[in-house]
Amino acid sequence: MLLELRDVSKEYPSRTRRMSLFKPNSGLKAVNGVNLAIRKGECVGLVGESGSGKSTLAKLMMNMEPVTSGQVLLKGQPIHERKRNNRKTYKQMQLVLQDSSSSLYPKMRVKEILEEPLRNYFPQEKAMWDARCAGLLELVDLDPSLLSRYPHQLSGGQKQRVCLAKALAVRPEIIILDESVASLDEPSQRAVLAMLKRIQKEQQLSLLFITHDVKSTRQLCDRVAIMYQGKLVETFSGRDCRQLQHPYSRLLFQAMPDESF
Amino acid sequence: MKKVPYSVDAGLIGGAGLLIFICLAGVLAPWLAPHDPLAMDLSNRLSSPGWTYPFGTDHLGRCILSRIIYGIRISAVFAVLVMICTFLISLPVGLLTGYLRGRTDHLFMRFIDGMLAIPDIVLTIAIVGLLGPGFVNMAIAIILVRWANYVRFIRSLVLKVRKEDYILSARMSGNSHLRIMRRYILPEIFSPLAVFGALDTGKIVLAMAGLSFLGLGTQPPTPEWGIMLHDAAGYFQIAPHVMVFPGLAIMFFVFGCQLVSGRFSRRHTAAVKEV
Ligand SMILES: Nc1ncnc2c1ncn2[C@@H]1O[C@H](COP(=O)(O)OP(=O)(O)O)[C@@H](O)[C@H]1O
Ligand SMILES: [Mg+2]
Questions:
Q1: Which of A11, A28, A208, A209 to mutate to test the pocket of ligand 1 (most atoms within 8 A of CB)?
Q2: Is residue B266 part of a domain?
Q3: A107 touches chain B (CB under 8 A)
Q4: Enclosing domain of residue A131
Q5: Is A36 within a domain?
């Protein structure tokens, strides 16, 4: 098992003032007892409406937020340990954040942004950095001439692809994509999905594909997990949506035409 | 990241022009000053403004205009040095506490809250009183009092930047915390810091003049604005110009600093309240 979540919960303190000294202030459970496992080379979809805790779960997997309870194991090692260096986690696992325009530093050119992971993770390959940068852009279907641009000079889709290229530069074993295609229009969505599938096949990469839109999972994912109000209500791997148990997941798939799975 | 368009306005131009004019006068002091600022002319004590002495002379017959012009050098150099020293202390502290948070940050902030509760001038005078009067001691006192303010401001800027997605993204690229502070946070907070520095230059000059006026700072015969006021205080009733001109010089300098920074700082009102 590459990545394993064991009963992971995350509670945010609620904003309202504590009324009683003795009653504990019950917070907002953004993620509630999630169990999930991802194998090497597998692509798992995570579907849920907005506010269901998908982004929070992604941040918990990266140790960007402390867990309230539960464990996240990366290759059997718990990542929420005090002594563990986060860089070790990041080398194996990358997250492409939901908002691509705010996750690129506005004062750096695309080339500098892509060079950072190379400099930090592959310092001995200094001579190859330039070629790698160009290669990465090619991998995500971008023109190498964009290397000298600043993020504000890129379109939304281009920014998204630069973020993906930055994650690929680390050569991780698993990439978490948080609504990475949601903001794109239909044709570029399809192009990005095809590109992801190609990269995943080529590099034996595991993907956790987070989306609020069920349709985009059918092109890409081996398995789909459905999240509802912080809980993982259903995981199914078959192509058959008649085996669905939970009413919410039935509702989700009802709208879809049958031939899709 | 929002870019606020800067409209060029009269206040900014006026303030900047005033400061540039004052600094130029300080640089060109040997050519502009009509007399030696230290030369005494005891037959011409307390003379009124006129052709030979445009701003008149003080109680020892020294040319007031020359002393004011040479005083620019001392005030400006002093203010800049004090500011650099203050930043040298407060920048690392503010960056580290704001970026790493945690218990050390909490302790530091309580300590600084305590310091800021005491009025600036009282604390400064207390420190100079302990160290003894003098130029260097005055500088030390001003730095010791002002650094807490700077830390508070720098920390509030860092708190805002560290929550941005690009910091998370930079961490994932394998950057160390140190490199993130240097490469990402410092460039982001630089321009509000520059504005803050401009405003504070005025305050430092004012503090220095105040301390010198009380006899705790610069010692005579140095041509410095505060000490000129101090010397002139006894003669104010018979020769008011001796006091008026140095006072005006201080006022114009501080006014220039206020104009320049006031125009910018309105756009950078950081959440200083946040602790
Ligand atoms: N930093 C935070 N502090 C408090 N509540 C949060 C925080 N981040 C997310 N939440 C809450 O957690 C819930 C799940 O949010 P999120 O994970 O962003 O959902 P999704 O990505 O599925 O749209 C939401 O109700 C949101 O308000
Ligand atoms: Mg989200």
A1: A28
A2: yes
A3: yes
A4: 3-9+28-185+205-260
A5: yes
Q: How far apart are CA B229 and CA B245, in angstroms?
A: 9
Q: What is the position in ligand 1's atom list of the atom closest to the CA of A57?
A: 17
**What's B183's DSSP letter?**
I
Q: Which domain CATH number covers A213? A: 3.40.50.300
Task: Give the mean model confidence (pLDDT) for residues A219-224.
Answer: 83
Task: State residue B236's pLDDT score.
Answer: 81
Q: For A97-122, what is each residue's pLDDT tens digit? A: 988 889 999 999 999 999 999 999 99
Closest by CA position to B84, among listed B258, B201, B191, B183: B201
Neighbours of B93 (CB within 10 A): 18
B84: tokens are 């650099």
Of A104, A117, A170, the CB nearest to B166: A104
State which residues form the domain around B136: 10-274
The answer as to whether B1 is a domain residue is no
Measuring CA to CA, which residue among A207, A243, A210 is closest to residue A225?
A: A210
Ligand 1 contact, A52 CB (< 6 A):
yes
Give the count of domains, chain A: 1
Task: Say if residue B175 is exposed, middle or buried (CB neighbours under 10 Å; 0-12, 13-18, 19+).
Answer: buried
Domain assignment present for residue B71? The answer is yes
The whole-number pLDDT of residue B89 equals: 92
Model ipTM? 0.87
Phi, psi angle pair for B89, to nearest 5°: -80, -50
Amino acid found at B213 = F
Q: Can you read off the two tokens belonging to residue A45? A: 């979809």
* Confidence grade of residue B88 (pLDDT, cut at 50, 70, 90): very high
Residue B215 near residue B228, CB atoms below 8 Å:
no
Chains A, B: CB contacts within 8 A come to 54
Interface check for A163 against chain B (CB to CB < 8 A): the answer is yes
- pLDDT tens-digit series, residues B44-59: 777 777 787 778 788 7
CATH number at residue B72: 1.10.3720.10
Q: How many domains does chain B have?
A: 1
Identify residue A155 by its one-letter amino acid code: S
Q: Is residue A192 part of a domain?
A: no
Residue A47 phi/psi, 5-degree rounding, is -115, 140
Answer yes or no: is A37 within a domain: yes
Among B171, B173, B187, select the one facing A107 at the smallest CB separation: B187
Strands A206-211 and A43-47, sheet pairing: parallel
Asked if the Cβ–Cβ distance from A170 to B169 is below 8 Å, we say no
